[in-house]
Design brief:
The protein has about 425 residues and is an alpha/beta fold. It folds into three domains: about 20-260, HUPs (Rossmann fold); about 285-380, no CATH class; about 390-435. Helix content is about 45%, strand content about 15%. It is built from 15 helices and 15 strands. The chain starts with a strand and ends with a strand. Bound molecules: adenosine monophosphate and zinc ion (ZN). Adenosine monophosphate binds near residues 31, 40 and 43.
Length: about 425
């Protein structure tokens, strides 16, 4: 039985799908204004493992992860880069798709873009106005927070805290400081669409509510995202959807991953303390990044260091060699122990330790199945994939040798050895091999 920690209930509970023939899940995807960093990759990988697990239990899973391609951060970044908004969002989206493929994350069934759902957003906003949950003011449309008495319950926020969450300077068109934007006017250089309230663009929260409704309906199983999205984003999604649909149901289970931290602080674009997936993939394999992300339980903070990636790369290389040597052994397929760990609110650290146990016990069939459920692509960890770091060290060693600095070249050779590789000098230059 799968158990999930449901943020809405603040406890771990049994997962019972609305329709056991097709489980439905929605995850908030990236805002495509810049390349994703390894913190953004955490929800991608965590929910990819959930998707794989659900697919192994239920006949079908419908997975929707949106692309936020309307956002003020996009507008200012395009201006800064001197490119059009479309050029920026297309380029960033393409990189995002490449990144998650390199991390071996399965393509969601639907990847809706906000720009392709404007009609649905306008329709939902009209419904909210009709239901008296929203009002128009100075070409803006705002959600009237006090019109819904359950507002704040999901995020556990009192009215004071909601107000506090609003910007310090409260816009004069707001009836209440906590009210939030559903639609806003655009200036000439900002993207805009025609609407009953004039040319403008949607607010961020309504984007997800409209895309959820279009692709999964009013009530669906699982909604995921990072911890920072609980308030205001997810609270606002719930308010908009429940009020527009006149329903008290939206997502039945809410799952939130904890933050990936860098030296005690949340990794984020604004702090500048980040590594993009694109740059990490020059040095490390997608498998190593995946192993680091899954080695900590998804709800806990994860302290990220590059040394963890080096260590993970070593483990993946050893695993890959082991598989290549033992592929044809007799197979035993029952992996209940492993699956039970994942079914306990996605306990990936425990599942990984069971995977290593299968390896130690030479249980190849079980090992292969557990590798697949965790989404490692061992075919891609063959010898052709020498990490960039090793290649650079090998080049340094070569230079040292040319300069006849043999003490240095031996030192580097030893370091390379510690990282699981060996250098062989041949008449045609040097070769790097996994040990
Ligand atoms: P954004 O593009 O900023 O909206 O973020 C995309 C996704 O990454 C959201 O689900 C965020 O919650 C998540 N996220 C952003 N920073 C981190 C972090 N440091 N650790 C874990 N998840 C994060
Ligand atoms: Zn969202």
């Amino acid at each position: 039985m799968l158990k999930i920690f449901n943020t809405a209930k603040n406890k771990k509970i049994d997962f019972i799908p609305i329709n056991k023939d097709e489980v439905t899940m929605y995850v908030c995807g990236p805002t495509v204004y810049d390349y994703i960093h390894i913190g953004n990759a955490r929800p991608i990988i965590v929910f990819d493992v959930l998707y794989r697990l659900l697919s192994s239990i239920y006949p079908s899973v419908k997975y929707v992860r949106n692309i936020t391609d309307i956002d003020d951060k996009i507008n200012s970044k395009a201006l800064q880069n001197n490119e059009t908004i479309f050029e920026l969002t297309k380029r960033t989206e393409n990189q995002f798709i490449k990144d998650y493929k390199d991390l071996n994350a399965i393509k969601p069934d639907i990847e809706p873009r906000a720009t392709e759902h404007i009609d649905e957003m306008i329709e939902m906003i009209q419904q909210l106005i009709e239901n008296k949950n929203a009002y128009e003011a100075k070409k803006h449309v705002l959600f009237r927070v006090k019109s819904w008495d359950k507002y704040g319950k999901f995020a556990n926020k009192s009215y004071d805290e909601q107000e506090h969450g609003a910007r310090v300077e409260v816009a004069d068109y707001k009836q209440d400081p906590a009210d939030f934007v559903l639609w806003k006017p655009s200036s000439d250089d900002e993207p805009s669409w025609d609407s009953p309230w004039g040319k403008g663009r949607p607010g961020w929260h309504i984007e997800c509510s409209a895309m959820v409704k279009k692709h999964l309906g009013e009530n669906f199983d699982i909604h995921g995202g990072g911890l920072d999205l609980i308030f205001p984003h997810h609270q606002n999604e719930i308010a908009q959807s429940c009020c527009a649909n006149k329903s008290d149901k939206f997502a039945n289970y809410w799952m939130h991953n904890g933050f990936l931290m860098s030296e005690g602080q949340k990794m984020s674009k604004s702090l500048g303390n980040f590594y993009t997936i694109n740059e990490l993939l020059n040095e490390f394999s997608g498998n190593a990044i995946r192993l680091v992300l899954l080695s900590t339980h998804y709800r806990k903070p994860l302290d990220f260091t590059k040394s963890k990636l080096i260590e993970a790369e070593n483990l993946i290389n050893k695993l890959s060699d082991f598989i290549n040597k033992n592929k044809n052994e007799k197979q035993d397929e029952n992996i209940d122990e492993f699956k039970n760990a994942l079914c306990d609110d996605l306990n990936t650290p425990l599942a990984i330790s069971i995977m290593w146990k299968y390896q130690k016990e030479n249980q190849i069939g079980k090992l292969l199945k557990s590798i697949e459920l965790l989404g490692f692509d061992i075919k891609n960890s063959d010898k052709s994939q020498i990490p960039q770091e090793i290649k650079e060290l090998a080049e340094k060693r070569n230079q040292a040798k040319i300069e006849k600095n043999f003490a240095e070249s031996d030192k580097i050779r030893n370091k390379i050895k510690q990282l699981g590789y060996e250098i062989k000098d041949t008449p045609n230059g040097y070769e790097i091999n996994k040990i």
